[in-house]
Design a protein that fits this description.
With 357 residues, the protein is α/β, with parallel strands linked by helices. The strands form four sheets. It has an eight-stranded parallel beta sheet. A three-stranded antiparallel beta sheet has the order 1-2-3. Helix 3 packs antiparallel against helix 4, helix 6 runs parallel beside helix 7 and helix 8 crosses helix 9.
């Protein structure tokens, strides 16, 4: 099989409401969709959701790289996914979102060629995954109201709460959310690099009081030594997770050797797709670290792949695959992939990623 043509299409969707994290305010999302055609009539879809302060890509720079890949892939076998990554790595370093789009298009084609869903190609024993829903930074009162809506109106059992701008407001928000949802709803926190070792240690004690499961990325992404120090000094029951620090399996190996975290957050846009996402999960398992698969402002093309990865890898025990629900009317322009009931996502038994534009 050979690639005969690659189309690159821009997709845009407005969020239901602005979404604030420690280092950004997001009001809408732009993504690139890769449509890969082959000489056997099979078409594969992939998606790139660049985020400058995480992947180092803007929409403009991502498009330049995608165009370069599109030319390089003509005549290549899309079912040779290892070869696809060697090709992309030989062209440019990093650029995870651009590489992810081509990685996913290849997996989609491979699944359709073998008449298998991607989750089955990955060896997943189940097609069901439970995701959390993320609450952005707002006033503590507004965050409390959002928690009520998500638990009692939408049926979620796991909440992820953004923090990191103001420790006092963080404390009040978590206190209010726990009081609102009761003791049985799981809560995890994402500081998005907003704390120091000292402030994180203080916040961990507070979070423990309110039954928080885990705190994600307390420190700047580059501070592996600080993460190791925080991990050693953490005497609470709250687990520590790395996100922005883990872009590839080399980062996972480094963090594993240093003893930096209980969890790694794998994001396909950071690591370049399923191929390297699998490697991160394998590295984590080697060091006894568990994983979560998260997302950025992505659509259901990449989220269908992310959910498939969660279902397949033993080291991956958590999912944060909620971004498609943040669009107006939960419509990101992509159909299929999986269905949702509350926080339970069920992958469709369709070949490839099972998505339709």
């Amino acid at each position: 099989m050979k690639v005969t043509k690659v189309e690159i299409v821009k997709m845009a969707a407005d969020l239901e409401k602005p979404f604030r994290i420690a280092f950004a305010l997001i009001t809408k999302t732009d993504t690139w969709t890769v449509i890969m055609h082959t000489d056997e009539g099979i078409t594969g879809y992939g998606s790139a959701a660049p985020l400058p302060y995480v992947t180092g890509e803007t929409m403009e720079t991502c498009k330049i790289v995608l165009d370069t890949f599109a030319k390089a892939f003509i005549g290549k076998d899309p079912t040779d996914i290892e070869g696809a990554h060697k090709l992309m790595d030989s062209i440019i370093y990093a650029n995870g979102a651009a590489k992810c789009a081509f990685d996913l298009a290849c997996w989609d084609i491979l699944g359709k060629y073998k008449n298998q869903p991607v989750y089955k190609l990955l060896g997943a024993p189940t097609n069901q995954v439970v995701t959390d829903y993320t609450i952005g930074i707002d006033t503590p009162e507004a965050m409390q109201q959002e928690a009520h809506r998500l638990v009692y109106d939408k049926g979620f059992d796991i909440l992820k709460v953004k923090t990191g701008l103001d420790p006092e407001k963080d404390k009040e928000a978590i206190r209010r959310i726990r009081r609102e949802v009761g003791p049985n709803v799981r809560i995890r926190v994402d500081a998005n690099q907003g704390y120091t070792v000292e402030s994180a240690l203080e916040m961990l004690k507070v979070f423990e009081q309110y039954g928080v499961d885990a705190v994600e990325q307390c420190l700047p992404w580059w501070d592996f030594d600080g993460a190791a120090e925080l991990y050693k000094k953490n005497t609470t029951s709250v687990k520590l997770m790395l996100d922005e620090s883990i872009h590839n399996h080399y980062d996972a190996e480094r963090a594993g050797k240093l003893g930096c975290a209980d969890y790694f957050n794998i994001k396909l846009m950071k690591c370049g797709g399923l191929y390297d996402g699998i490697k991160i999960a394998q590295a984590a398992q080697k060091y006894g670290v568990k994983c979560m698969v998260g997302c950025m402002q992505e659509n259901k093309i990449s989220l269908s792949a992310a959910v498939s990865l969660v279902a397949a890898m033993p080291a991956i025990v958590e999912a944060d695959c909620d971004s498609f629900m943040m669009y107006k009317n939960e419509d990101d322009g992509v159909k299929g992939g999986f269905t949702r009931r509350g926080g339970k996502l069920t992958l469709l038994d369709k070949p490839g990623l099972g998505v339709e534009l």
